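Record pair follows.
FIRST:
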Amino acid sequence: LFMTKAFSRIGAKTTAKLGRARVARSADIPHLSGVAIRGDARTHEWAQDRFSRFIRKKDRELFVFGFRKPVAYLGILDREVEDTTVQRILGDKVNHLAHLSWIAVDPAYRKVGVARKVVAEATKWAKERGRKGIWLDTSSMRSFWEKMGFVSVAQEVIHGKERNLMLRKFK
């Protein structure tokens, strides 16, 4: 029932009216904190710290989706991997990939294409930097990532949690 109400209230055509994915600005941080709390069960402190570290850095980008206020975010990194588990699984090729570090969509805006648009913008960003693909680790949303072209390359305990390491290579 909730999803039906949310979808009818927002509607597939409305995602176009929400704007497009764009690079986050410092002014977005208060809205992004709300998305992190509602959509990703994060704390306000986590959100403030993480978003502040992502804005205006050369080796990473924070994309947001929304017109008046952001309703989704995605963080992507373009730097060498320090995680030994990921290095062991992906080997040297990991340093030719971008790392999608986190994504969240406000629950009221799910199932209407918002995440797809943000992932598309991140993919474009990674390709522009000469990356050969994107990797991520996730404990949920595996079917979503598979629909986006990612394949599971391993199931491991990463940072103390059971995770799926997923990879999407560019053509």
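SECOND:
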Amino acid sequence: FTALLKCMKKFFTLLLFTLSTCFVLAQEGGWSTLSHPGGSRVDDIYFHGKNIGWTAGGWNLKVHKTTDAGQTWTPLTLTNNQYLRSIEFFDENIGLCGSVAASNVPQAQRLGSLYRTIDGGNTWTNVAPAIVPRPAGICGLARASTTTMYGVGVWYGPAFVIKSTDKGATW
């Protein structure tokens, strides 16, 4: 009987240690809400590493950048009157931001924009006019490698996929 009590004591000590370790480890991670000065909807976010990130979204015509893991955000204005929908970067400097033309515009006039930056978002150039046929918008961007990016179109069609193999310079 004494041997059984010693065995049970060891078992419960080990169980208590395991459960308390799991509880402590579970407290180290998790979700938290960060402030964002955008004032409207944010549709996409991309982080390069743990500190540098960008958001895009809405009619506010802004991309926001953080260099401190989202504690503060700096607005980076794009000159456009479209809805910013997607953002993705190759590195700290070269990135793309897709926008969507308004759906109430006649289809022939729906010309979305695809902006490219080579200076971390300080300046942007619309590269969409070189895409044939020009899409009505870019709703999603996905980096496939250090030089390759894919983009996809808008919900109101027509459907398409675009690809760049030179960091978004040509499509």
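COMMENT: DSSP finds one helix and eleven strands in the chain.
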